[in-house]
Amino acid sequence: MSAGVPVLAILGGGQLGRMLGLAAARLGVRCRFMDPADNAVAGHVGEIIRDSFEAPARLDEFVRGASAVTYEFENVPAALAERIAAMGVRIHPCPLALRTAQDRLLEKQLFRRLGIGTPDFEAVDTFEAMRAAVERIGLPCVVKTRRYGYDGKGQAVVREPGDLIPAWNLLQKGVPGAHVIEPPAVPLIVEGFVPFDRELSVLAAGGAGGAADERVYPLTENRHEGGILRISRGPAPGLSPALQAEGEAIARRVGEALGYVGLLAVELFQVGERLLANEIAPRVHNSGHWTMDGAVTCQFENHVRAVMGWPLGDASARGCSAMVNLIGSHPPAERLAAIPGVHLHLYGKQPRPGRKLGHLNVVGDSQQEREARLEVVLKAISG
Ligand code: AMP
Rounded to 5 degrees, what are φ and ψ at 187? Predict the structure, then answer.
């Protein structure tokens, strides 16, 4: 590394790390990544230290000379984040935020403590406790593993009593069967099923200057397919000032409670004019990819600014944006690049079913123009 160039060390070298690296490069900051994979795609934009998160052998090398450490996915062991903090290295978001986001129970307890609405919930460790929780909360319910769930994995919907055993067995062993599998049990959480009108997220950047040092993006509307985010619209269509204010208040309360520095995402359900919080992500988030082309300062740049202790950038939207994820496979890059008005972001990954390979952003001057451009994009990628 050249002398005098600030270094940001990032745990994880996937596409989020890669986009952080690109944003950091514009600011004259060089990124160094730690990842166990031999072909991590952030390697195209920075040095990769190939190491295991569980028992890293090259931790000193990873943090050497770094102004700060951050992470790009939430399954980095919290113990590793704590170890880095104990070395006296600046790490953001703080290990407490990481620990909280890794456990759906801690997240929901935090929301409850802060007076933020959530689905009704109860933690359960046995089949009998699960049955009792479902009875108390009422059908339908969603049962989730407390840890390691993503993209709709690690959860099952219980619509009728006959779904209880298959749901339990699916979450315990990955195979539904006729008999209850007991113990040792994977800890679960039972949640009331929310008949939401739509899913939203709020993204906020917390700066190093304390509670008031925060920039909140306009709320984003998110559409999933097969449990994976497919389309985001930012600002969310028809977003009222009252809903924006409620989303901002949620992000602010969570940020303050955790002493949060960096980009925070809170996933929300909109029910009428109310927002219920589902979960937090202590990192840059797929639902914020539209900000790369549709906000004054994108989420990646604001995360880098925040964790480096720099002033935050303006989080206002420029126009109305939509983001489409490219999942599993996509037309050739040249064809995508030819779509009028499209901003193409490819991650340099090998195609594989269910894999996020890139995304497309479109920006319009109005919601109508956004929809028209989005339609063109969706036609082009399905054709
Ligand atoms: P999660 O892993 O918690 O983000 O859940 C994945 C998806 O499942 C969400 O984006 C929702 O579409 C759906 N979902 C999760 N929890 C609930 C709930 N309590 N009620 C209704 N739908 C849910």
Answer: -65, 135
